[in-house]
Amino acid sequence: MEEESDPLCICCLRGIMPTIAKKWAICIIVELGRRPSMRFSEMMKDCGKISPKSLADVLKELQNAELIERVCYAEVPPRVEYRLTEHGRSLRVAIGPLLHWAKEYNLLFLSYRIPMLAKVPDP
Q1: What is d(CA 67, CA 70) in angstroms, rounded to the nearest whole number?
Q2: What's the pTM value of the predicted model, to 2 decimals?
Q3: What is the fold of 13-115?
């Protein structure tokens, strides 16, 4: 049996990939990790140009995947907050290196594609 030279396998991502690959999922996970909990309107502001329907849909999917939890308070008016679960917090930590890579690569990428938008010198 031949030994594989690259131990990385995407097989383990098949179950979670459809959820975390959603357009706003990573943004929501990162923003929720900045605070103990957030309300819907706070996420609308922090995530940028997301529509209320898109935010509601992604929140529901992240909740079904047990990456976030929705907490309802029996108050008048009703109050709902969202927070990361333990799995959501560990995913946020795992996303960190990807975000650092994207920040570096994106600046370099933009410097080649649209030089005036990035302040990175051409190597």
Answers
A1: 10
A2: 0.77
A3: Arc Repressor Mutant, subunit A (1.10.10)
Helices (H), the chain: 17-20, 25-32, 40-46, 52-64, 86-113
Mean per-residue pLDDT, 53-59: 95
Q: What is the distance between the alpha carbons of residues 71 and 37, in angstroms, rounded to a whole number?
A: 9
Q: What are the sequence ranges of the domains in the chain?
A: 13-115
- Alpha-carbon distance of 53 to 103, in angstroms, equals 28
Contact, 32 vs 88, CB < 8 A?
yes
- What is the per-residue pLDDT across 93-102, written as a single tens digit (0 to 9) for each? 999 998 888 8
Q: How many CA atoms lie within 13 A of 88 on its CB side?
A: 29
